[in-house]
Amino acid sequence: MKIAISSEGADLKARVGHRFGISPYLIIADLGAGNFEAVASPGSLGQQGTGVQTIVLAISKDVQTVLTGYCSPAARRHLEANGIEIFTGLSGTVGEVLESYKKGEIQKVEVAKIEHEPEKRIGNMGILIDAMRRSCNQFASMLPIFLGVVMLIGLLNTFVSRQFLASLFSGNPVLDTFLGAFFGSILAGNAINSYVIGGELLRYGISLFSVTALIITWVTVGLVQLPAEIAAFGRRFALLRNGICFLLSIPIAIITVVVVNLVIR
Fold first, then answer.
1. Coil, strand or helix: which one is 70?
2. C-alpha triplet 217, 222, 223: angle, nearest 5°
3. If you compute the radius of gyration of the chain from its CA atoms, what whole number of angstroms results?
4. What residues contact residue 258 under an 8 Å CB cut-off, 6+ apart?
5. Which of 6, 54, 57, 203 is deepest in the core (most CB within 10 A)?
6. 149 vs 195: CA distance, rounded Å
7. Could you tell me whether strands 85-87 and 25-30 are parallel, antiparallel, or unpaired per DSSP bridges?
8. Residues 6+ apart with CB under 8 A from 84
9. 137 to each of 68, 86, 181, how far by Cα in Å?
10. DSSP annotation of 48
11. CB 74 within 8 A of CB 96
């Protein structure tokens, strides 16, 4: 049996996370094997949609029980729909909570009670301090992304010549748009990356059709994240959604650029 415990750190001495969706780590404890695994939670980034990725992470790890401080009603619905039992209102260290669970000392808290928990804590100075600490953690977690963009641009300027790009992008609006959509589909990262890289491609003379398609598929098509999406929503839905978004990105990019050119003239 596997248990997921929201955690502020990567070991059993860390404090239990206040909220399941945004805690920095999930401690996955395997009661049968007697070991545990600390997994960085995507929800700690605070970006839109990362809370869903935390749910997908728990499901993909075959978790049967979640122990946390608070679980939102939306997250609770998704977890319970996948047969995962949820215990909330917990505090202390991960190790202490885990031992209490093993001894059967943890009781379920009524959903109605925990739904009002955030309102009761409004104005608490401890929450303000916790929010500031989380903001610092989010900035620290995003810093490698920005550094990666800078390094990627440097590599692009150093090793990718205009002649090479010209050989890939022929100037044909439809073909260039398709290539831009293709590269956007296989790349992954923060949406900000696509804007910076798109700007560099424009500076290299790549058409706005291609760059627009790249940005669209970057944020709507995720081949790298496809396994997680399949785990959450099923293979058929995930493949259809990604395929439809890819196909629609081409006419949307072309129409967008045509309309923009008409407006700015």
1. coil
2. 115
3. 23
4. none
5. 6
6. 10
7. unpaired
8. 58, 59, 63, 64, 65, 66
9. 20, 26, 33
10. T
11. no
Report how far residue 86's alpha carbon sits from residue 109's, in angstroms, rounded to the nearest whole number.
Answer: 9
Between strands 35-40 and 65-67, the pairing is unpaired
Backbone angles phi, psi at 214, to 5 degrees: -60, -45
pLDDT at position 67, please? 93
Encoding tokens for residue 19?
């909220």
**What is the Cα–Cα distance from 106 to 98, expressed in whole angstroms?**
9
How much is the pLDDT for 197? 79
Tokens of 12: 């059993």
Six token digits for residue 18 = 């206040």
Low-confidence stretches of the chain (pLDDT beneath 70): 43-51, 109-131, 134, 138-139, 141-167, 188-190, 231-232
Q: Where are the domains of the chain?
A: 2-122, 160-264
Strand, coil or helix: 42 = helix
DSSP run (H or E) holding 246: helix 235-264
Closest CA to 42 of 185, 146, 141: 141
- What pLDDT score was predicted for residue 20? 87
Contacts of 253 (CB under 8 A, 6+ apart): 177, 180, 181, 209, 210, 212, 213, 216
Provide the whole-model pTM.
Answer: 0.45
Q: How far apart are CA 109 and CA 247, in angstroms?
A: 47
CATH number of 2-122: 3.30.420.130
